[in-house]
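Example 5.3 — NADH-quinone oxidoreductase subunit F
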Amino acid sequence: MTLTSFGPANRIKRSAETHPLTWRLRDDGEAVWLDEYQAKNGYAAARKAFADMAQDDIVQTVKDAGLKGRGGAGFPTGVKWGLMPKDESINIRYLLCNADEMEPNTWKDRMLMEQLPHLLIEGMLISARALKTYRGYIFLRGEYTTAAKHLNRAVEEAKAAGLLGKNILGSGFDFELFVHTGAGRYICGEETALINSLEGRRANPRSKPPFPAAVGVWGKPTCVNNVETLCNVPAIIADGVDWYKSLAREGSEDMGTKLMGFSGKVKNPGLWELPFGVTGRELFEDYAGGMRDGYKLKCWQPGGAGTGFLLPEHLDAQMYAGGIAKVGTRMGTGLAMAVDDSVNMVSLLRNMEEFFSRESCGFCTPCRDGLPWSVKLLRAIENGEGQAGDIETLLGLVGFLGPGKTFCAHAPGAVEPLGSAIKYFRHEFEAGIAPTSAVVPPLARPIVVGA
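Solution (predicted structure tokens):
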């Protein structure tokens, strides 16, 4: 895993003025512990928030800065914070950090937690102060064992320094923070499934409303934010709204910077902190270095396995939510994947849909039965045994499992890459249809769940 700077060929060093998330990183990749973090102005924003700012002012500052969720949905953070109840008599509230990073091709939160654990803790401390939450949990993907070790050590360091626990910084404010490792389910990335899992229940999404801000973990008001989202909070508090907004490129409707990356057969796969509004071409050519010798870019995904495929001509799109929406998909997590010309799209989609099918919670019928059905059809097409009408059935499933058709966003994210792959590479799917096959009505083909 690498993390480079703003400038092509790494000629420009990271600085606090341009890289609020990553300027404190060590060149050797080791974690930044408390003494070094504080020497690099760590917890200064927390001290400012506790000493000089009213709780509602912190919320308003984050709202004015235009910070949006960095987990993929992009909901305005300040607006979400504003949904928490104002009633002072409600003295039990929770702040949850969604660190269940299981989106294929996404590892940005892992880097932050492993190398800058105190940045996340400071972000949660300021957020807890703003939201009047007395207890927080970092719900961590179970496979992130190094992140768990580093976070637990950082929590103990913060406690010993009086930055967590009782009467923090002499303010009378108490905040306890715990690291909770999950049991390994993709669906826990959905905030209400995360809440159910934290309570010891099956990780099924909940019906909304009520939203977590009203009825969350153990029935109490709860705010759930992503790791990268919370890590943006200290810089906003320390350096202000105007500075934060100035980081984004002209034309971007999203403010600040974003951890972006590229994987696949590129020359320099990695992760970089970049301003919103850079183009996909800059990310691909200047940072990832283009394709390795002997390979040609066939298509790419802009932000994880749940985003649609784009063609090379779409690389000029700006990397922010609205910019990527203009070319037909979502920004997602902002970590792109290059697909080279040796890859068969049917095989790639069959592999993806197997993952999404396996990770379905099984609560609603379209997702529970529709995703295994897509796997069955894709497997047949991959083996050259597809039947006439199978492609139309797959497109029908894309519609049946689209936004608003299922209980949560798992299935819509699962079928978005499928629909885009058929749109741009239908001929590869058609090649898997047996030439002598007869048209079979879509609902007449048997489907065995889990087959």
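Remark. Confidence is low (pLDDT under 50) at residues 4-12, 446-451.
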